[in-house]
Structures are given as structure tokens and as C-alpha cells.
Amino acid sequence: GKEKWPRGDEKTWKENMRALETDVPGISRNIVNHVQTSLARQAYNLDDLGAYQAAALSVRDNLILNWNDTQLQYTRKEPKRAYYLSLEFLMGRALDNALLNLDLKKQYSESTDKLGFNMEDLLEQERDAALGNGGLGRLAACYLDSSASMELPVWGYGLRYKYGIFQQLISPEGQQLEAPDPWLENQNPWELPRLDVQYDVRFYGSADRLNDGTPRAVWSGGQEVVAQAYDVMIPGCFTKSTNNLRLWESKPKRGFDLNSFNAGDYERAVESSNSASAITSVLYPNDHTTFGKELRLKQQYFWTAASLADMIRRFKNIGKPITQFPEYVAIQLNDTHPTMAIPELMRILVDEEDVPWDTAWQITTNTFFYTNHTVLPEALEKWPVPLMQHLLPRHLQIIYDINMYFLQAVEKKFPGDRERLARMSLIEEGFPQQIRMAFLACIGSRKVNGVAELHSELVKTTILKDFVEFEGAGKFSNVTNGITPRRWLDQCNPELSALISKSLNVPKQVWLKDLFMLKKLLPLAEDAAFRKEWAEIKQRNKERLAHHVRTTLGLEINTNAMFDVQIKRLHEYKRQSLNILGVIHRYLTLKDMSAEERKKVNPRVVFFAAKAAPGYWIAKLIIRLIVNVARILNADPETKDYLQLYFLPDYSVSLAEVLIPASDISQHISTAGTEASGTSNMKFCLNGGLLLGTVDGANIEIGEEVGESNVFFFGYLTPEVEQVRYNNIYHPRPVEEKSPALARVLSVVSQGMFGDGGIYEPFLNTIRQGDYYLIADDFDSYINALKMVDDAYLDKEEWIKKSIRTACTMGKFSSDRAIMEYAESYWNLEPVKIPA
Ligand code: GL4
């Protein structure tokens, strides 16, 4: 029979439905209510942390109400939905972002003020949600913000790691040490456990084909683990639209293994419980490398299986035949990490829904979309066949079947081309054989894209070349990355945001969602009064950074200097090495000068912040060098007024929010062809920092937008790199010959100017021999570009003009533009308006 909703007395329900609290008295009531009840605390013993928690819970109330309305609308309208599958979501803090998106910052500040707390102090209480390594994870976070802001029905799916990216400590010798990041320790007011949303996920066991004329098999035995949902609300900017990020936690199916427990084997009983919860205990801290660890594959399957089960349940609620799945669901694969979703969907369709193989394959390949985020070979995921056989036996069968049909089709198109078959097979021969996940993601998807023009070309001409020849170029395209201007301008640089609104004479809600509007400010570059305001804001942001460094590290920074910033994961391809060697060169040059000559030099402060993967030894050595060079430089009375160097430990989203608005120039200096896009380059430019970089990734498109007179490019170009590398191996030239300046730098390091030179030899040798990243080849060109930066900075007014021109031509790099490209050209998704 039909149930009556609501149950009970409708009037009582209606009268008691809560509305958003948006005025100061209502907000104060809500905060105090949370202090008293949710936190069981009182006015007389409330500290900043408690006040932050109460404020956060009260904001969450508003988010939940909007979330409810949004989800109800999705249920009613049954729009096509997109799901963004990412192993990483580098969200950072949520409170300030939620307040700005809800347009309640003013009211909350006033309310907390009345209650005796300073809003800025409360914001500092929040821990970063750091469930990601770097750009790939932060991109996912920007895309969630843009999806909600563009009112698109998009959910994120990820893992609720108990420990996010490690906390970085730097020993006095400059050694990176890693400590765990127990970010959930103080409770997380932004998540909502959904005890009613749980799925069982199987591992191990055996797979038996039915051999009954169907492709079906039965997968049984092994171990079952429970996936438990936690929801994080994602507020859109100035809209009711509030989407969901669903994160899975792994739990043992039963709290204890009762059999072992009864047998008195307590150790084993607890072990089984440990092994289930181990799956979501920690984020793997490697950016751009894979290790083939069983636990990592477990994470990947656990997450994709739970997410797909959830999507299928939701799809079934609308009562459409399974063949229409791709008309209601699009799944974006954030790199190859979620590729197991492809054989998992095949398994569900074939084994559980009894769909014929070809139909199932058609459904699958119309559902998935694959984004590649790197062409570095060490990042291309491969899983050993024996591991897959052991952990996911049914999926291995399915992958073999997919491969068999695929290679048959290749053979048909290119008869007799055995080498091509070997190159394109999902299975790489060797001991052991390995499954090539990028190939599986490619053939299982409707479209494949890279993340900047150059990178998308490289995907087509290198790693997936054979696939372009086989499937046609139409399947492969580009979506240049973007960043959310909410966090990366309005939130991190409120003064600049206010100046923009004032000058455009529109409320920020307008231009923050149409970033191309910034172009209208270009003529103001010629307006001296505007330039003055612009420059003063930059100066105050530099002082804010100096204050931050003073209070956290106790160091005194010269704010009259040019601020030169390189912040990103530490990796040889990103060439922090080039930067630090350039700093040493600058130091030597200063030492060569007379005191009089030095007085003409523009002071410079160089900032680094970067985490190295814990097992990446050379990267850690480079950090060590930076720290030890800083120690010498900052203490040298002759030069310290002209050159200071800081390595800021524990780089995070929150630290980036302080560093980026303060930069005059930032460095994006990867070897050409190695940085797929980069996204911090966009953030710096949007905040009026100029760009010094190589002709790589999104730098190229930034250069196109700002115009060549406003950027500083240097170095070999992508098409030349291969030949240079070849020469470095087969016709090596000594560093002295390539760059005498660099040779001198290497020799002072080696001779111990920055402490025991011997320890740096392994790093120096990477340059002396092979020089895979072209450090010596690009060095003189780099020094020349730095000189151009120095010269340009001498003309302060012209520099400010460049700064204005740079920020105001960043329209293209809004993640709103990027997400709309995915929605329109890939997912076929339409916005859903949420009625007030
Ligand atoms: C990365 C790329 O290295 C980076 O250039 C890009 O901006 C980012 C987002 O697309 O993805 N790929 C991997 S792997 N980690 C990244 O940060």
C-alpha cells in the first residue's frame, strides 16, 4: 500500500520546519545553542576551539538545509548526474569558504564579535582537510566548488582517510621528517556520518564461470568489508545549490571475528578488525609514483565498488531499464586511480544484472570519461597480474575478456601487426605480467582528455598514440584546468576582491561567476590612482605573510624586497633544484660585488615550500640543500639585506592562501613537456603575481592570455628536449662547457660552502651525468630570465601595470569555465535550479 507522507500531523511538521538563520540574532541563537547542547559547554569555559566548533556546526545547519532542498530537487527532476571519482580531495579549510559562498561572512563576524570572539582567530582553529598530495587533489576540490556554483548535479566520491598527507617537520640539519596528520582528532564538524548508507565489498575468494552459454560467473568466499558513507556538503557560491562529497570509511563486517574470539585467540580477532579498517587509514603520500602495493589496490577497489553500488541503487530508484544507465549517469575518472570501476561495472552488469556482454560493454563505455594528469612514465599505473588474481579474481577474468575482444578488433583493423598488438595489449609481458591501467581507462571510456593544450597533444602523440590511430582522434581532446576564484581570490585576497568589485562597480557575486569580466579593468592599468591601490594591497599581503612567518617561525622578513615564490610538491621534474642553484649563483654574484655596487641591487626574498614523498631520497636531499643554503645566506651580513631565503615547512592549502597573494613573481620551471598543466601558476597570476616559467603545461596558455610582454619564459622547448636528453647520454659535455656559471655553483656546494659537501654529491651527480631534467642545459637561459625579472622590477610603475594586466586576463582559468566544458562536451549535463 501507499504510505502517507509525512506521517502524523502535517501541520505540526510544517510549523516546525527550520529555515536558514541568516540574520545576526538568529545566527547568535544558533551558535549558542550548539555551544550548550552539541558541545555541552558554557559561556564561562568556552575557548577559541569550542567557539569555532559551535560556529562551524551552525554553518553546517544552513548547509544541510540547502543540501536537503538540492537533493530533493534532484530526486524530483531526475536529471542526468555526474560523479567525480577521485582518490584525492585536497579541500583545505571549510568555514571561511562556506561563509563566503553563503554570503554570511559579515553577519557571522558580527555575531561572534558580540559573543566575544574574533572571527579571524576562529578561522585559524580549523584543521585543513588534506586528503590529497598536490595539484590533482586540489583540482578535484576546485571542481566541486565550481559544480555547485554552476548548479550542476555533480557529486564527488572519495575515501575518508583517517590520516591525510603527512605533516612535514624539518630537522635542524634540513632533514624532512614525517609525522602523521590526525586531522579528525578534534572531531570534524563538516561531515555527516550516514549510518544508513553502507555496502559490503568483497576481496579475495574465487571466481567460477557458469559456462551456461552466458558470460556470467560467481565470485564467492574471501573477505567482506563494510563501506560506510560520510557526507561533506559542498556549497555553491551565491546559490542554494549544495552538492555532496561522499567519502567512504572501511569497517570490519563484524566488530570482531567471533570464531577466533571464542577460541580465545584475541590477537587474531583484533587483527581481522584491523585489516578492514586499514583500508582507509592513510592517504598514500606519493605524487607521480606508483608502488604496486596490495593495500593501495584494495583502496582503489573498495572505493570504486562502494561508489558504483551507491550510484546503481540511486539509478534503480528512478525505475528505468539498466540500458539507460549512461543517459542518467556520467562518471569522470580522475586519472587512472578509479579504473577498477570499469571492470566492476562490467561485473555488476554481467554477473548481477544478467546483461549480455556486448550490451554491458556499450553501457560501460558510454558511462566513463577518463582524464589523464601526467605523461611521466613513473606515474603510469600498472598492477601485477598475480596480485589482481589473488585480490580480485573475477575482475582479472573480466579484464582478460575485455582485452581479448579489444585485441580482436585491433587485429581486424591492422591485420598481422603483431608488434602493435603487443604494444596495445592491456597486459604487459614480463615477470610478472602487468595490467596497464591507462589503456584500460582509455578503451573503457567515451572520451579521454588531458589537462592543458600541450599536455593533451602529448597524450595523443606519446602514451596513447596507438589508441588514437585505432579509435580515431575524435575521442581525445583537451580541457585546460582551472581554479576557483572564490577560494583563490575572494577568500585568500579579500582586499583585492573588494577593489575589483569597487572598480567594476558590481557586487562580487557577479564577477566571481564570470571571471572574464576582469578584462574590463585593463584600462585601469593606465590609472595612477588605481595602480597605487593595487600596489598597496600587494604590500599589505606581503606584510601579512611576514607576520605569519614571524609568529610561526620567529623569522624576520624584509618586506621591501621582491617576493619570489616556488611552492609545489618537491620533484626533480619541477626543478626546485634549478631555483636553488640560481639562488646560490645570485649569492656568489653578490659576494663578488663591492658594497657600493650591492647598494644598487634590488633586494629579493626567495620562498620555497614543498613536501617530498617520504621515500624520494633525492627530493629530500634538495630540501636539505635549500635549508642549509638559507642558513648561510640569512646570516651573511654582507648580503642578507639583498638576498634572503626561506623554506617554509609543512606546505598546505592554508599556507598557500597566505603565500600566493604576497608574491611578486612565482616560478613554474619544469623541464618542458613534463608538467601536465600546473594550477598554482593560475593562482599566482590571478592575484597579480607575475610568472617566470618554462614553455610548459598551462604556462603556455597563461602566456597567450597575458601577452608575451607580461611573462618571463626561458629554456628548451618540448620538441627539443628529447634530442638534448639523447645528447646528454651519448655525446655528454661537461657542465663547465654548458654553463661555467653553473659549474662554479656546483663546485662551491661540493666544496662545502653550505656544510658537508659530500652529502650533496648524489644530487650533483644527477646534473653531471645524464642530466635528465636539463638543469645544465637550461641554466644560462634561466639566469638570463631572472635578470630580465630584476630589470623589469626596477620600473615599479611598469611592474604594477604588468601585475594588473596579468590578473585581469585570467578569466579563462576559472574552474567554472573548465567544469562547464566537462558538463557540456562530455557529460551532457544541465544545471538544475533549486527554488528558494
Ligand atoms: C598533476 C599534474 O602534475 C599537474 O601538472 C596538474 O596540474 C594536476 C591537475 O591536473 O595533475 N598530475 C599528477 S599525477 N599530479 C598532479 O598534480
What does this protein look like?
With 836 residues, the chain is α/β, with parallel strands linked by helices. The chain has 36 helices and 24 strands. Strands 7-10-11-4-1-12-13-17-18 form a nine-stranded mixed sheet, with helices on both faces. It has a six-stranded parallel sheet with strand order 21-20-19-22-23-24, sandwiched between helices. It has a three-stranded antiparallel sheet with strand order 14-16-15. Helix 2 crosses helix 3, helix 23 crosses helix 35 and helix 24 packs parallel to helix 26. 48% of the residues are buried. The structure holds ligand GL4. The site of ligand GL4 has 17 residues, from helix 7.
